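I am writing to request your help with a piece of structural work I have in hand. Thank you for your consideration; the sequence and its tokens are set out here:
=====
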Amino acid sequence: LKLNISETENSLNLDVAKDVAEYFRIKKERADEIINEVVGAVKKWNVIAKELGLPNSQIEGMKKAFSNFEN
């Protein structure tokens, strides 16, 4: 099982996602729009998690998954 975004790259990097967008018939401009929308939606994930009452231990456990999206 491979979860790579490209044939050679598996890092959690939004630039890699943008670089392969055309393979999925997504134009670069649209890829930028999608990335900006996703970043905007999840960049304050920790604030929302706290508002929803998630324990700090769970928030800390998820921190790495959202590190590319934090301010």
Summary: The two ends are 32 Å apart (CA to CA). The chain has a mean pLDDT of 85.
